[in-house]
From TrEMBL:
Renumbered residue ranges of the record's region Disordered: 1-31
Annotated protein name in UniProt: DNA replication licensing factor MCM4
InterPro entries in alphabetical order: MCM, MCM_4, MCM_CS, MCM_dom, MCM_lid, MCM_N, MCM_OB, NA-bd_OB-fold
Species this chain originates from: Tuber borchii (White truffle)
Keywords, in A-Z order: ATP-binding, DNA replication, DNA-binding, Helicase, Hydrolase, Nucleotide-binding, Nucleus, Phosphoprotein
Subcellular localization(s) per the UniProt record: Nucleus
Gene3D superfamilies assigned: 2.20.28.10, mini-chromosome maintenance (MCM) complex, chain A, domain 1 (3.30.1640.10), Nucleic acid-binding proteins (2.40.50.140), P-loop containing nucleotide triphosphate hydrolases (3.40.50.300)
Subunit annotation: Component of the MCM2-7 complex.
Amino acid sequence: MSSASVLRSRHGGEIEGSTPLRSRRGDLQFSDVNATPTRRRLLYVDEQGMPIRSGAGGGDAVHPLSDAATYSGGPTSDLPDGPRRLIWGTNVSVEESTQAFNKFLREFKRRYRMRMDGEFVAPGEGDELVYVEMLKQLRDLGTSNLNLDVQNLKSFPPTKRFYHQLHAYPQEIIPIMDTCVKDTMLEMLEEAGAGEAEYEACLERIYKARPFNLEKTVNMRDLNPADIDKVISVKGLVIRVTSIIPDMNKAFFRCHVCGHTVTVEIDRGKIAEPTVCPREVCKTPNSMQIVHNRSDFSDKQVIKLQETPDSVPDGQTPHSVSLCCYDELCDVAKAGDRVEVTGIFRSVPVRVNPRQRSIKSLFKTYVDVLHIQKVDSRRMGQDTSTLEEELAGQVASDIDEVRKLTDEEVEKIKAIAGRYDVYELLSRSLAPSIWEMEDVKKGVLLQLFGGTNKTFEKGGAPRYRGDINILLCGDPSTSKSQLLQYVHKIAPRGVYTSGKGSSAVGLTAYVTRDPETRQLVLESGALVLSDGGVCCIDEFDKMNEATRSVLHEVMEQQTVSIAKAGIITTLNARTSLLASANPIGSKYNPNLPVPANIDLPPTLLSRFDLVYLVLDRVDEAHDRRLARHMLGMYLEDGLENASGNLEIIPIEQLTAYISYARQNVHPKLTEEAGEELVKAYVDLRKLGEDVRAAERRITATTRQLESMIRLSEAHAKMRLSEEVTVDDVHEAVRLIRSAIKESATDPITGRIDMDLLGGISNSERRRKGDMKNAIISLLDDMARGAGGARYNDVLKRLQEQSTGITIASGEFADACRSLETEGLIRVSGEGARRAIRKISGF
C-alpha cells in the first residue's frame, strides 16, 4: 500500500482511506487496507506552501507513531470544527488542497499566466476559463487525461501553496488532483443536464491529471537521494524501449476447499497472499490459489533514457536512467526520440537473492512517468509523409513533437517564402561560417527539406523514398566535417557517427541480453535511431567492407533486415544519409575517376543522389578571400563580420522554417514539370551519343531521374508550394548536372561518363579491349610453331606499336590474365623464361 492512501485524523490518529480506484499510474493508488506508509516524513509547509524542517515556523514536530496531532502551531483552517484529515507526517490539509484545486479548475483564466510572464494584459483580454474549456474538450473527445501546466498553478494566487505541495508530496497530492478532476467533470455534467448514460460513463471513467512544465529541469547526473519521492523533470534521448509488460494491480484468490474468493491489492509490487481462508467456516491454511484471468492488470513499459551528446560534460560518459510508463503512456516514446519527462523519482530495494527476503543496502532508482513531451526547439520536425502512422498516434495522445509555432512565426515564415531570393537566403544561412561552397550548401539544404514519400497501391514497390543521400568527397581541410556537424545539430532524430568507430551491428541493430528479464532483445543502431531524420557519417571511406555492405539495403529500400539469435524481423531506417570521405593518399587525383580516388564500391556510390567533389585548388585570389573570411570570424563582431553585409537568418528561424515545410507542405508533380523532367532525362542520355556506336557512353541512369524528381520536390517544398513547377525541375537538373560534371567526367576524354561511377569508364573499357586484340595479333606474328613467345618480348613490341600512349606493365599483366581467363592464351614459366602461348583453335 502506498503512502498516498494514508491520511491521519487530527483527533485520535486513526488511519483513513479514500475511495479506491481501479487503475492508477505506478504506486499512486488509494486503498482501504490499513498499512504503515513507506516513508514517514516530518516535513511541514509554511504559509507560502514551501516545505520546512520539523520544528521550524513555530511548530513542534511530533513523531508520527504517536497518537498526538501530526502538527501543532500550523495554519488554521476556515473549515467547520471537526476531524481534519492531513497527509501523514505533514500539516497539509486534504480538504484545503481539494478546495484550492477545485477552485483552480473552475476559475483559472489565461490572464493570470500572462501577468506572471510579464505580458501586458489589456482590459477584457485573457478572461477565458482555460480548464473549463479543456474539461469540455475531454468530455467531447471521450478521453481521460488532463495535461496540466504546473506554472499555471503557480500563477493562480489560491494555488501557489498547492504548487509547492505538489512538488514535495506528489504521491499524496496527485490522487487528490485526479479526484478533483472527476468531481468537477461530474458537476459540469449535472449543470449541463447530461443524460443518465453519459453520467454513468463519466462515473466509470478514471480521470488522470498529468502535470508538466516544471520550473527547473534536473540533469540526470545531478539526481540524488534528496529527490526521491519528489516530482522531477529530465531531458534525454530514448535509446531502448521494452515491450509492454502486464503489471498486476489486484490479485484474485480462490480457496480450493470451499471456493471462497477474495481480492488483494498490490502493495509496492508485493502480493500479500492470504495464508488462511478468511471464511469463518473454512479457515483452511494454505488453501488460497491465485486466479490470473480474474486478476486486474495494467500496461507497463520500461524505457532507458540517456543524456543527449550535447549535454555530456567533457571527458565523461553519458548517464542513463530507467523510466516506467503505465497505461496510456506506453508506446508514446520510441527509440531515437528526444523527450522531456515529468515524473516521480522513486527507489526500490534490491534483494540479495531472489529466493530470500534480505535486501541490499543500496537501492535501485527509477522515474515513475507522469507526462512525456517530445520537444527540441533547435531541431527540425519530422516529415509527416515519412512517419504518418506514428504521428497519427501522437495526435491521439496529445504529444507535442516540437514546439508549436505561433501565428506570428507562421506569418514570418510565409513572408520569407514570398521573397524572390529565398533560395539564396536559406542556403547562405546554412552553416554561415563556411565560406563559398554554394552548390554544396544548396544540395544539403534540399536534403533537409526532403522530397515526398509516395506509396502506390497498384503495382511496383510498396513505397518510394523521398529522402536524399549526399556524399562529400575531397581533400582534407575543406570544411566537410564541419558541415556534417552543423546539419546534425538541426536535423531531427539525427545520429552522428564516424566510419572507423562504427561496426555493422552498431549501424543497424544488435542483439543483447535484457538486464531485467535476461531475455535476448534487439537494440537499435545508428541508422534505425535516425528513422525519420538525417544520419551523418564522417570518414565514410575508412569503413571496413562488412560495415559498408549493410548500407546497400538502407540507402535504397530504407529497411534493415535482421536474422540472428532466433530474431527474424525487418526494421525501418527511413533516413537521409550525409557522408564525407577523404581520397586515398589524402589528396584527390583529378586524373583518376572517383572510385579510384576513394575506397568505395561502385554499387554503393551509385546510390547517392549527389556526389560533390570538394577540392582544394590553388588560386591566389580565392585564397586571399578565404583567409580574410577566416580572420573576420576572430574579430570582435565574429560571424557578422565574417559574413559581410549579406543577410542571414538565425538558426532557430531556419529550423522553424524547415520544420514547418516538412510538416505542412507535400508538393505534387504537375504535367508541365513531368514533361520537363522527361526532356531533361533524355537530354542527359543524349550526351553519350557519338558518331560511332562503339563509343556510346551512358551519361544518366534511372537513378538520376529519380534523384531529379526528389530534388525538384524538395525545391518546391522549400518555396512552400504545393506544386512542382518547371523552375523547380530546372534547378534540380542544374544540381544533378553540376554534380555529374565533377564526379563522372572522364579524365582521359573530358566527357561525362556514368560508367566512371561504376569503376571503369567507357573509354577505358574500349582501351582494354584494343590491348587484348593487339596481344593476340602479336602472338600470331611472333609465335613459331607451338613454342609461343617470350613475355618480355611481347610487352616490348606492344609498347613500340602504341605511339603516344604509355602502357604500364601492370596493365599488360591485367590484359594477359583476362585473356587467360577467357581461354585464349596460356602463360607459363617464371622470370626471364616466362612465355606466352596462344591456344590452338583460336
